[in-house]
Amino acid sequence: MDLTGSWSFSEAGSDAWHPATVPGCNFTDLFANALIPDPMQADHETQLQWIEQKDWVYRREFQLSAAELQSRVWQLEALGLDTFADIYLNGQLLASTDNMFVGYQLDCQSLLVAGCNLLQIYFHSPINKVKPLQLASGMVYPAENDKSDDKLSVYVRKAPCHFGWDWGPRFVSSGIWRGIALVGHQAVKIDDLQFTQLALTPAEASLQFDLDFTVLTPGQYQLQLQCSVRPELKQTVRLEFAAGQQQFHWQLQMLQPQLWWPAGLGEAYLYPFSVAVCDANSQQLLAERCLQIGLRTVEVINENDVDGQSFYFKVNGLPVFMKGANYIPASAFPGSLTAADYQREFAAVSAAKMNMLRVWGGGFYQDEQFYQLADQHGVLIWQDFMFACSLYPGDMEFLANVEREARYNIKRLRNHACIAMWCGNNEVDMGIARWDWPQKFGYSEALFSKLKQDYCQLFGQLLPGLVKQLDPARFYLRSSPISFWEDDADHLANHHFWGVWHGEQPFTEYQKRIPRFMSEYGFQSFPLQSSVDKFLPQAEQRLESPMLTVHQKHPRGNKLIQSYLADEYQQPKDFEQLLYLSQVQQALGLKLAFDAHRAAMPFCMGTLYWQLNDTWPAASWSGIDYYGSWKALHYQAARSFRAQSLVFSEHLSEQHQQLSLKLVSDSPLAIAATLHLRLLDFSGQVLFQQSQQISVAPLQVTQVQQWSLAELTKLADDRQLVLHAQLLSSADGRVLTDNLHFFRPNRELQLQQAAAQLQISAVDGLLTVHLQSHTLLRQVLLELPDLEGKVLNFSDNFIDLLANEPVVVTAVIADLTSAQILALASQLRVRSLVDSYQSTLYQSTAGNGAPV
After folding, report:
1. What Å distances lie between residue 139 and 26, 451, 648, 657, 809, CA to CA?
2. Greatest extent of the chain over all pairs of C-alpha atoms, in Å
3. The last residue of a domain, from among 148, 183, 218
4. pLDDT digits over 136-179, tens only?
5. Is residue 653 domain-shared with residue 597, that is, in the same domain?
6. If DSSP codes are grouped into helix, strand and coil, which group holds residue 575?
7. What is the 3-state composition of the chain as percent helix, strand, coil, each rounded to the nearest 5?
8. What is the mean pLDDT of residues 832-845?
9. pTM for the predicted model, two decimal places
10. What are the residues whose beta carbons fall under 8 Å from the beta carbon of 656, sequence distance 6 or more?
């Protein structure tokens, strides 16, 4: 019996009850009832801090007939209660909870009645609940992202970012944030089904399934394991079982297994398995559990080598360069996220050709549908446990709570093909070594030593012990990163590099500081004007406005964006162009990192930028803003993460400045291709060109060209010069990859104003735009208005448009006729880098097939 949907809620002690929606939380329900303003808009965050100090009560009624009550054994299944909750059924206390990350199955048979039942959940203020713990400790933990004096977040097993972060708000919520149901069991209850891959070769897979179940009524049962696409694997047994907890194990051999591969290397093939428990005589189905199984091997190679210490992933025996991003909670209120939200995110991840996401440790373990989509899309998941940027208590009660959390989530996630590894925490090793916690928080040497002992017990003993016990095939990393950017230890394992941004070093530092695996780095940008309009009134749309400052959580954020812009770009003419330029800067800055990391393969074997997404509308490091609009960074990632990549780099050789071109291929197959090179001025005149047939070596980096910069730039004014490299498939002429090299910083390029010529058409829900210009246009942005509140993203955007060379982009616009799409497209807006500096913007008035 699904108990999500309509509930009622009230502030504790109040007689005023209001409608509530489950899943959800107190913030979303207060807003839905017009009791508070929209938390995401303006400076409302500062007005809503009182909510965390209150207790809240949720309730609903449900009906149960006498026949239903007597025919089953009933449990209340609550998959997510945030966080300190007392659960009452018909006025009797059923259970109390203290961990947002744990699902509960609670025996409730004795409290149920035939007819109307009342379920009520009392949520205690997390702040008031744990304040006594902090007072008793006599100290403050170093949770610097917790935007309060007491730093109480460390005592609460709840998303750390709910207490504030340098990209997100402080909304310390309470509520039922995941599914809740009344579950009736007949004779048997399945507790767990674990899949283990014992051995895997191209010829054969050896598999084991371990079923844990509880027999409520002793008797004879039929247990059946089957795979719908491999019927020969079906196994059925009939056995007598006594009442109580039971286990059964199947082992089977699958011939010629089809492997699961990460995106870009093959199909992420999944085998649908199911286990059914039936009454042996009547064949009545009593319990069933289904799994989608991916057959693959994943190894993390973290060992000393001639270059220092490696860190890379080997999938099915193949070293794989990881391309992706860090993933943070997609909403400050996770109960509001829907299946459609996750589907849009993974569509964006696939469009950007990513093969890995890191689920960062300051949020929460994601919903089941997140991992199902990762399985289906071939996206490996680096899974952090939910600890970040702080030390934590070491008392037995806290450790026992963490143990329950870790057991629950390891068992919940271990059957997913996408899970590549477990990581104990985010940046706590770095904090201990580098963040001066004893000085900042007044720790004595003895106290700091005790805190470090607690750290070792949690992350060096408890968590790795649980991974070894429950998921022994997977790698456990105590903390990310292993090496620190301040130490210049790039040769040692995985790395978070923040010299660019926090350290105020230039973007070119990305080309020098190349680690073995880059698991964090990034740069901030603003959302575009269309997104800013959704959360800021017009009067507050200026860089230092009080309301915008609420949505810029980094204390130096705006100044850093401006100072980097001043080095590379001309002054933007207004606030809207500043927003656009910030995205261009972010994308082109990180492009240097993408190129440098990929060209350093196999020394460097992964690049995960910070961050994929946003938790609320803000200036942040994201490539996709809160409303789903792809920033320039996401489009650039899609180009830079293609299977083949052409990388330009300037370097000094024999006292002369050289320009080299490297070809990178992640493909396991050799490819016949044509490399086409052209030196162009901005009007499209070809000053030099060359084509050559090449064989693209698999999984390698090959230097294919080198030039003297002086020889290239003497052919024309280098302020109006670009070198274009393009790789074409010999089989079908398809463009595999391309890249441009400009010879001057963007602020020195002599770009000309021009209106792009557009030709627009619409067929079967697909908008197609042909663009062309008589002069080079840098970072061309196409914008359409939202459609019924939904952001419309193009197949490509922020495009460098070469002179007289058409480019085609598309946008999927479902549920509209072609005429309606063309009407929408009449509002298409196009601009480029030069427009951000000068006075004219261009607006399309194209109809069907009409050039502008």
Report:
1. 30, 11, 53, 57, 57
2. 91
3. 183
4. 999 999 999 999 999 999 999 999 999 999 999 999 999 999 99
5. no
6. helix
7. 25, 35, 40
8. 67
9. 0.96
10. 708, 709, 710
